[in-house]
Specification:
The complex is a heterodimer of chains A (134) and B (391).
Chain A: H1 4-8, H2 11-16, E1 18-22, E2 28-29, E3 47-51, E4 55-64, E5 77-84, E6 89-94, E7 107-117, E8 124-132
Antiparallel strand pairs in A: 1-2, 1-3, 4-5, 4-7, 5-6, 7-8
Chain B: E1 7-14, H1 25-40, E2 49-53, H2 57-60, H3 66-76, E3 83-86, H4 92-105, E4 111-119, H5 127-132, H6 148-162, H7 167-181, H8 195-199, E5 203-206, E6 208-209, E7 218-227, H9 228-234, E8 239-248, H10 263-276, E9 285-287, H11 293-303, H12 332-336, H13 340-355, E10 369-376, E11 381-390
Parallel strand pairs in B: 2-3, 2-4, 9-10
Antiparallel strand pairs in B: 1-7, 1-8, 4-7, 5-6, 8-11, 10-11
Helix pairs in contact in B: 1-3, 4-13, 7-11
Classes of the chains: A mainly beta (134), B alpha/beta (391).
Chain lengths: 134, 391
């Protein structure tokens, strides 16, 4: 579903959870942005890369049963909206847990995982998922 | 400078929605277009510009350049009029009619055609979920396994928890859609469903199940929009588009201020009602973009019919065909169907039919004004129109 460059381009953000911070208002964003939606032109040239710690809290979650082909072998899987301690909310899977461990308000942290693969001979895509932070 | 031109719907037509294996993308578009032209009683040579609305033909059908496709196979290639595709994901239809409205309001054109089409069943199995997920943020939502249903489900879970709303209230949105669709021969699903059936269907993305989710649909819808000058000159009784508004929000749910308030809908509704100088009390019925049952509740609130968390008080009786605020007399996205690019145009077909008093079994009693709400993706775009007063 895509050329190598499309995934390679985002490696830094997906592997190391690099976001951006506006040098004008100090708000942190993930995924990264070139323009701050609050400061507009005041933010130009002031958006700095920032390393996120990957810790946060579950805002909401679902158990996905109907998935695209890339995720069929992972079904059913947890998807969640997670509010990171640095501010931004991000979307990701929750893995390595029992169903009763996942709930709104639970603390989670990121782990580096395989997201999907492009068929048997295609590239393997990596990125972040979340586990329950005990 | 504000112009005083008024814009009217003077004709409307649509195909049946459903799994229409024997009909192609272009055949669907032409069928709906011809019905609209015939309904309007105009000649195709009178059409000055054509807006085609479509969301996913590039990936599902391998066909872009939809404006030319529709124009060509409608037999008007040699009329050489501009034929442009409007794309705003699942709000393409509303956005395209809005362009037609603006084209007439500007004074540039007197007769504009809008044709919305989507042919979604040419892809089998779960592949369609990947393609419909392209209306999300591909890199930061869909890439990680999120689907449109998953995002609606996450809004639903948090909403139900924060406002103590039972799953039953969501299910009632679908029950109402199916009941209305049972009276609509163009609807994809004409079977009535019980609350128990709605609650106990196969899970899709928990807490949402199959009966909370609009289907994969083929279908097309078309309307003719004309100027006041044209309507008067030809003695046509059109339905006026009283106002049109569109608003935008962050593409991804995770970037928005709230996961259960659709700010684009709040703003578009406020603007459309304001421009029409109407209140919700003046609205006889609404067609709303309930692609997922939870959105039906959120939209009733964000359009202004209820405070946040209170739409549950409306879904048992008030939204019924004969209720205080009839919602989705057509059967809505759940039961009439959701052929992305056609959905928003189809709402106009329903409203035109209703306001003309020609909706038969599902006729809303003496309607005066209609509110149409068409939404893109998970709420990144909302388009709201107010139609009213048979001229």
């Amino acid at each position: 579903m895509g050329e190598l460059s499309r995934f390679w381009r985002e490696s830094e953000h997906r592997y190391r959870l690099m976001g951006t911070k506006c040098g004008n208002c100090n708000v942190t964003y993930f995924p990264p942005r070139d323009i701050c939606p609050k400061c507009h032109r005041e933010s130009i040239g002031k958006m700095k890369p920032v390393q996120l710690q990957g810790k946060g809290e579950i805002i909401s979650f679902t158990i996905v049963h109907d998935s695209p082909p890339r995720f069929i072998r992972q079904r059913p899987y947890f998807m969640a909206l997670i509010k990171l301690d640095e501010g931004p909310t991000i979307t990701g899977q929750i893995v390595d847990c029992d169903a009763d461990e996942v709930d709104i308000g639970k603390r989670v942290r990121t782990v580096f995982r395989k997201i999907a693969e492009e068929g048997k001979s295609g590239i393997i895509e990596y990125g972040y998922k979340f586990i329950i932070d005990q | 400078m504000k112009t005083l031109n008024k814009a009217y719907i003077i004709g409307a037509g649509e195909t049946k929605y459903g799994e229409l294996w024997e009909k192609s993308l272009r055949e669907l578009a032409v069928e709906a277009g011809l019905k609209a032209v015939e309904n309007a009683g105009i000649f195709s040579k009178e059409i000055e510009v054509l807006y085609g609305s479509n969301s996913l033909a590039g990936t599902i059908n391998g066909q872009e350049n939809i404006g030319s496709l529709i124009s060509d196979f409608s037999g008007i290639a040699e009329n050489n009029i501009p034929a442009i595709r409007i794309e705003a994901s699942t709000a393409s239809g509303g956005a395209a009619v809005r362009q037609a409205y603006l084209a007439v309001k500007s004074g540039e054109y007197d007769v504009v055609m809008v044709g919305g089409v989507e042919k979604m069943t040419d892809i089998y199995g779960s592949e369609i979920i990947d393609l419909t997920s392209s209306v999300l943020d591909r890199e930061w939502e869909a890439f990680l396994g999120a689907t449109p249903a998953a995002l609606a489900a996450m809004s639903a879970r948090k909403y139900m928890k924060d406002f103590n709303v039972p799953k039953e209230a969501l299910a009632m949105v679908s029950v109402n859609d199916h009941l209305n669709a049972s009276k609509n021969s163009h609807a994809q699903y004409r079977n009535k469903i019980t609350l128990e059936q709605a609650l106990n269907a196969t899970p899709v993305a928990e807490p949402l199940n199959l009966m909370d989710c609009s289907p994969v649909s083929d279908g097309a819808a078309a309307v003719i929009v004309a100027s006041e000058k044209y309507v008067k000159k030809n003695g046509i009784e059109g339905v006026e588009i009283l106002s049109s508004a569109a608003s935008q929000d962050y593409l991804a749910v995770h970037s928005r201020k709230s996961i259960y308030r659709l700010d684009s809908t709040v703003l578009a509704a406020r603007e459309a009602l304001g421009k029409a100088k109407l209140k919700l009390d003046n609205i006889s019925f609404s067609e709303i973009h309930d692609s997922y049952s939870i959105y039906g509740l959120m939209e009733l609130e964000d359009l202004g019919f209820a405070e946040k968390g209170k739409a549950k008080d409306l879904v048992y009786d008030e939204i019924k065909l004969n209720g205080r605020i009839p919602v989705n007399p057509s059967g809505g996205l759940k039961a009439k169907g959701n052929p992305f690019g056609a959905t928003g145009v189809g709402q106009f077909v329903e409203a035109y039919t209703q306001l003309k008093g020609k909706a038969g079994e599902r006729q809303v009693k003496s309607p005066v004004n209609a509110l149409l709400h068409n939404m893109g993706g998970t709420g990144s775009t909302s388009v709201v129109h107010i139609l009213g007063g048979v001229a």
